[in-house]
Model the fold of this input.
Amino acid sequence: MEHIQRQPARVVRAPSRFLDALQRWLPKLVVAPTFVLIGVGIYGYMLWTGVLSFTSSSFLPVYDFVGFDQYAKLMANDRWLTASINLGIFGGLFILSCLVIGVILAIFLDQRIRQEGAIRTIYLYPMALSMIVTGTVWKWILNPSLGLEKLMHDWGWTSFSFDWLVSSDMAIYTIVMAAVWQASGFVMALFLAGLRGVDSSIIRAARVDGASLPLIYWKIILPSLRPVFFSAVMVLAHIAIKSFDLVMAMTAGGPGYSTDLPAVFMYAHTFTRGQMGLGSASAMLMLGAILALIVPYLYSELREKRHD
Done:
């Protein structure tokens, strides 16, 4: 009998090195276009704007550097000073009002009321609208010849007057009203999530000790939500500093310059007045204000994670 010796079967292996390399590099290749677009479209143009702020660019960019001349002109510009004051009024009232209304609404919904989902949706709905839509709607509502004042007159209350939208002294407060209407629901959602994360045993223990519910929220629960307060302030301040479309839809900066904000100033001087260098300087100051808010926040967050 002949013994047939069988050769061991050869296993054909896939090019594992290639597959491992492809698996390692594929996620990087997928996100690479996004990083390129962000690097060029955001950080690249930020750097370019910073360069233009040191030049005498007018309608088109030129690269004859003039140092800090544009920043000196900006500080001496009355319209920029007016826009900065308006930003202080608008930003302060906007942030404070959103925090107060958002916290109250969050506490109200935290009581496990009926139809909570529907009510929460109603509160959050304005956030789904763009600022252009919000500004247009509020412009109609506050227009003396179309909105609230005309409605009251049609109902027979002819002495009613609400002309804030066309009053140079009160127009900035109409911007605050529209912005608060849109953003307070977002603040409510932040605080509601924070309240739902509070240990209920703390509330029960405080109730056993005889503390009233308002006192529990004021003395115990809300102080424990300081990170939520800080995050809400950062987001709202960022919205306030870069506010542009809401103002343009409602008042276009008027009457006069009474509702002018830095973003409106930047757009007007860069794209309509042919003062690109001055507009770039204003944009860099706005960026500096945003960084002054974001950097401490990031530092505190990273510091807490490091200690954890």
